[in-house]
Amino acid sequence: MLTWEQLILACEGCQLCELGKLRNNIVIGRGNIKAPVMFIGEGPGEQEDLKGEPFVGAAGQLLDVLLEALAFKPEDYYIANVVKCRPPNNRVPTDSEAENCLPYLRNQVALIRPKIIVCLGSTAARYVISKEIKITQIRGQWHEQKGCWIMPTFHPAALLRDSTKKVLLFKDIKNVKLKMAEIL
Ligand code: URA
């Protein structure tokens, strides 16, 4: 397992896949590295690639509003993605891109040791829970892996396309808040 310093250096020098050649910035994560809750998205978009931080574009603003509405404090969470470089035109990362990048995410999880992981959308849920899942079928249901509670839910960007998902995402994140009160 790498330390944070080693992990950041490894990510910054990473050229394991083609995405490395295209990036402006590597997007490792943001938030409290000792947080009890970790949110995992898919991969950086345009704004994230420009700033080097996850969830700072439109989807990130929606997530921030949601977390604020549910009284999450900044120290409660850390946010990262399955892949750390922006896929062109925000396409879904390929299986080999995701598999190449996953050791970095696993290393982040091992360093943070969150009590709760929230998978934002299908890509995160597939690589964290199981490749067989369908997000519409498993969202909102707790999974437990090695003492860590995992909540799969919709990606905030999905709300920008389909507002009916808003109620469900809100409900799932509210359940995360309840779980925090229960276990922390
Ligand atoms: N969507 C993601 O999945 N991650 C980001 O960092 C931004 C948008």
TrEMBL record:
What GO annotations for molecular function exist for this entry? 4 iron, 4 sulfur cluster binding; metal ion binding; uracil DNA N-glycosylase activity
The reaction(s) annotated as catalysed by this protein in its Swiss-Prot or TrEMBL entry are: Hydrolyzes single-stranded DNA or mismatched double-stranded DNA and polynucleotides, releasing free uracil
Q: Which GO terms describe its biological process?
A: DNA repair
Enzyme Commission code: 3.2.2.27
What UniProt keywords are attached to this protein's entry? 4Fe-4S, DNA damage, DNA repair, Hydrolase, Iron, Iron-sulfur, Metal-binding
Listed InterPro entries: UDG_Type-4/5, Ura-DNA_glyco_family4, Uracil-DNA_glycosylase-like, Uracil-DNA_glycosylase-like_sf
Q: Which Gene3D superfamilies match?
A: Uracil-DNA glycosylase-like domain
Q: Which family does it belong to?
A: Belongs to the uracil-DNA glycosylase (UDG) superfamily. Type 4 (UDGa) family.
Recorded protein name is Type-4 uracil-DNA glycosylase
